[in-house]
Every structure is written in structure tokens, then in C-alpha cells.
Design goal:
Length: 313
């Protein structure tokens, strides 16, 4: 019996060791510098979460590229910048999406405790984040991190095979962020929600997310703020200008922590320019909800940003 247990232990250790080698090899493959090159004529990098992912159409920007992605906690944004900036000396300005929602503990709770949010991020960023950062994520949601690290080789095998074969691969292939087209407007989204409310399973998921989103509404996230500082420091260390950007918000949106947000900017980030488009007027047809523009709104907003970037580069 002891021999059997010993043999099982040896085999298990060997399998884990081989598995870790496979993961390390795949991570190294996905970290090849050529993948992270941006067009040489781009001097501005727009980055952040869903506000800029939906609201900034970089096909309409002459000087800027967009690497934003919904659900990007500042840790993921920092990981991208840590990789991208040294390889793209043409980027002289980083425009980072910030809002009163981004600094709250409730949003981090949603992004870290909801398995769907966590799963996508671990699969897409496992090769970019450090062991310490992965450990922190593990402490937030151990079961999901283990599951996603375990499935990492299978989920990324196709893209790794493509890289090994020398086929052209970009950050878009790695799903690290880009402009995302959202066609629906507020009215259409509300009608869809009414239908979902008649589906018990969809309603339960919605209520679960709403419950998490309402927790700690007035509490700031030390983790988010810590990585916001890291992003600013990284940009300064690379001699890259950083600008904070808040995208338009619907007139009916009621912020619960606007005062806390503005106080944070004025006390801890007073040296960072802040472009605030919060009150830029848009009709309902330009929003997909109260804080996100749709494709129609993004076109108008991106045109304004394009003029801004041109006059300041």
C-alpha cells in the first residue's frame, strides 16, 4: 500500500512538473516581442476598461491606438503597459480611462468574485502577470484561478501553434484589448432586460451581480489605487506622458462617490492631467446604458478626441 501511494505521489509530481513546463513554454511563446508592436505612426495609447473599450473608436483616430478591454482592473492595464511601452518608443502619451466607479471596492468585488469576469482575465493575462500578482488573484478567488490556470494550455494551444509556425500574430489575437462595437441603445437594452427578468436563471444571475455591485459602494479599493499609482509611475519612468480620461455619462446617471473620486484625483494624482467629458451632451440613442456609449456615440466622441490629440502632439 505504501509503495502504491508513493508511486501515485511520484506520478502526480511528475505530471505537475511537466504541466508547469508546458505552461512556462506557452507563456514564453506568447511573450515574443513582435506580437506587441503597435503601428509606428501611433503616438497615443488609449487604455482602460469598458468605458474606453466601447467609447473610443481608434479606427477614427489618426494618432492613437486603443487597447482597452471591459473588466480591466488596473492590474491588467498595468501588465499590458509593462509589456507594451518598452517595445513601442513611438508611444509618447498614455490616455487612461478613469471614473468614479473604477476606484470602488464594489467594482473590484464584482470583477474578482464573479467567475465569468475572472475566467476571461486569467486565461488572457496569465502570461503577462507576475507570480505575486497571480497570488493576489488566487486569494480573491482560489477555485476559479486554479481552474483557469489548469485550462490555460488547452485554451491557448491554437494561438501558440500559430506563433510557433511563424504566422502573423497581434495583441488582438491574444485578446488583450481593442475597440468593441456595441450597437444597442438604452431603450433596446431595457427591453432585453425585461425579457431576461422573465427567465428565472438569467434573473438570478442578474440579481447576484447587482448584489455584488451594490456592496461597498462608498468604499475605495486600495488595490485599484495602488495599481493606478503603479501605472502613473511606470509611464513617468518611460518618459511617457499620462492623461486621465473620463468618458461621457448619461444625464440620468447618479454617482454615489463623485466627491471621493475628485478628492482622490486632487490629492494623490494632482500632477496628472484630467480630461473630463462626463457632461458632454449626447442623446439616448448614443448610449448603451447610463455610463457607456454605443457605436453611434463612440463615433462622435472619437471625432472630438481625434481633434484633441492632433492639437497636442
Amino acid at each position: 500500500m505504501k509503495r502504491l501511494l508513493l508511486r501515485i505521489g511520484i506520478y502526480t509530481f511528475a505530471l505537475l512538473f511537466l504541466y508547469s513546463i508546458v505552461i512556462c513554454f506557452m507563456a514564453k511563446t506568447m511573450n515574443k516581442p513582435g506580437i506587441y508592436l503597435l503601428p509606428s505612426d501611433k503616438a497615443v495609447l488609449v487604455i482602460g476598461e469598458s468605458h474606453t473599450a466601447y467609447g473610443v473608436n481608434d479606427t477614427l483616430l489618426d494618432l492613437a491606438a486603443n487597447l482597452s478591454q471591459p473588466g480591466d482592473a488596473y492590474l491588467y492595464t498595468y501588465a499590458k503597459l509593462r509589456k507594451v511601452l518598452p517595445l513601442n518608443p513611438n508611444i509618447r502619451t498614455v490616455v487612461l480611462s478613469v471614473s468614479e466607479q473604477d476606484i470602488t471596492q464594489r467594482l473590484i468585488s464584482l470583477w474578482m468574485r464573479n467567475d465569468n469576469f475572472m475566467s476571461e482575465k486569467i486565461r488572457n493575462f496569465a502570461h503577462l502577470i507576475s507570480p505575486a500578482e497571480l497570488t493576489h488573484l488566487f486569494l480573491q478567488n482560489p477555485q476559479e484561478v486554479i481552474k483557469d490556470i489548469t485550462s490555460f494550455p488547452k485554451s491557448k494551444s491554437t494561438i501558440c501553434y500559430k506563433i510557433i509556425r511563424g504566422q502573423k500574430t497581434t495583441m488582438d489575437d491574444l485578446k488583450l484589448g481593442s475597440y468593441e462595437v456595441v450597437k444597442e441603445n438604452i431603450v433596446q437594452v431595457k427591453n432585453k432586460e425585461i425579457k431576461e427578468d422573465n427567465n428565472p436563471k438569467a434573473l438570478a444571475t442578474k440579481k447576484d451581480i447587482e448584489r455584488m455591485y451594490q456592496e461597498d459602494a462608498m468604499t475605495t479599493s486600495p488595490w485599484q489605487i495602488e495599481y493606478l499609482h503603479k501605472i502613473v509611475d511606470l509611464c513617468h519612468s518611460k518618459n511617457v506622458k499620462i492623461i486621465f480620461l473620463r468618458t461621457p455619462e448619461h444625464k440620468d446617471w447618479v454617482s454615489q462617490n463623485e466627491e471621493i473620486f475628485m478628492n482622490l484625483l486632487h490629492t494623490q494624482f494632482k500632477e496628472v492631467p484630467f480630461i473630463d467629458y462626463r457632461n458632454m451632451p449626447f442623446p439616448d440613442t448614443c448610449y448603451t446604458d447610463l455610463v457607456h456609449l454605443n457605436d453611434k456615440g463612440a463615433r462622435i466622441f472619437s471625432d472630438s478626441l481625434n481633434r484633441y490629440f492632433k492639437t497636442r502632439q
